[in-house]
Recover the amino acids of this structure.
């Protein structure tokens, strides 16, 4: 069941789509309805007096407990941030009072709750475990690209394209779940470290981590928007990126309570600096992205 509900990201018409999202939503709704129904029944004397339910009461309670655990596990796999409290509060008392002592016999290799957070060697994994971990990684990476890399347009586009290729490559490994897991585990590390091909990483190594993150993003804008990057040398692109960071940092520090003024200052200072080197249109395009990065990152949204 966990595998059926886990994130399954596929490339549909060029868009990365979790094809299991609807299944999870239907499962959550059905489980909530079931828990509410059982809650009412457990408060009714008739439910306990009716002999026809004698062999079903324990089954219902076990089902609710195991499905609630599955719900929690699936939400962790999908890294869903929807508030869980409403559902949890509605059944917590019932679970504690009526179901707390129920022992659940789980099928081996189904839920894998005990393995969460532990490093598992691919050779020691069952096929189901490898698939579950691969699906969880795919869901995590998709969100990382959409959310964590929103302040780095070039890296976001780069890894989005790589993810689509990885998904297609994984389809060719359908009979080798451990290899699929390794493929996505390696890819996840690349995304976490923002290892982008063509980025001179060694130039950024000595920078403060927060500065490094933004300078890399600014550098990526030159790779993204200039068709012929030879117009600027690597040194010039790096120097421009450092200069952009200084302008942005100064504007944010001086006008921290006035976002509009921050953006006005960035535009006012960067346009004269850049248009002679790369042209007015390219300069405006890059500055617009710098302002977007500032909104998402430096100005405090994701910093």
């Amino acid at each position: 069941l966990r595998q059926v509900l886990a994130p399954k990201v596929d490339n549909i018409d060029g868009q990365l789509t979790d094809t299991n999202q609807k299944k999870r939503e239907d499962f959550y709704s059905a489980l909530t309805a079931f828990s509410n129904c059982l809650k009412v029944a457990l408060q009714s004397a008739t439910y306990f007096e009716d002999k026809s339910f004698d062999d079903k009461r324990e089954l219902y309670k076990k089902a609710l407990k195991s499905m609630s655990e599955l719900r929690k596990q699936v939400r962790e796999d999908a890294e869903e941030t929807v508030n869980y409290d409403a559902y949890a509060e509605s059944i917590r008392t019932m679970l504690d009072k009526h179901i707390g002592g129920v022992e659940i016999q789980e099928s081996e290799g189904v839920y894998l709750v005990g393995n969460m957070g532990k490093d598992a060697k691919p050779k020691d994994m069952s096929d189901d475990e490898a698939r579950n971990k691969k699906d969880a990684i795919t869901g995590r990476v998709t969100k990382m690209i959409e959310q964590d890399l929103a302040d780095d347009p070039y890296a976001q586009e780069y890894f989005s394209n790589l993810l689509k290729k990885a998904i297609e490559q994984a389809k060719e490994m359908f009979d080798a779940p451990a290899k699929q897991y390794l493929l996505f585990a390696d890819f996840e590390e690349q995304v976490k470290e923002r290892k982008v091909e063509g980025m001179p990483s060694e130039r950024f190594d000595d920078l403060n981590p927060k500065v490094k993150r933004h300078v890399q993003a600014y550098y990526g804008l030159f790779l993204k928007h200039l068709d012929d990057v030879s117009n600027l040398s690597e040194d010039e692109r790096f120097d421009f990126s450092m200069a952009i960071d200084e302008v942005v940092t100064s504007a944010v520090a001086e006008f921290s309570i006035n976002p509009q003024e921050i953006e006005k200052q960035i535009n006012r200072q960067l346009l004269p600096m850049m248009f002679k080197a790369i042209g007015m249109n390219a300069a405006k395009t890059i500055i617009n992205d710098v302002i977007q990065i500032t909104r998402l990152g430096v100005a405090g949204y994701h910093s």
Summary: Residues 100-118 have pLDDT under 50 and may be disordered. The beta strands are 9-12, 15-18. The longest strand covers residues 9-12.
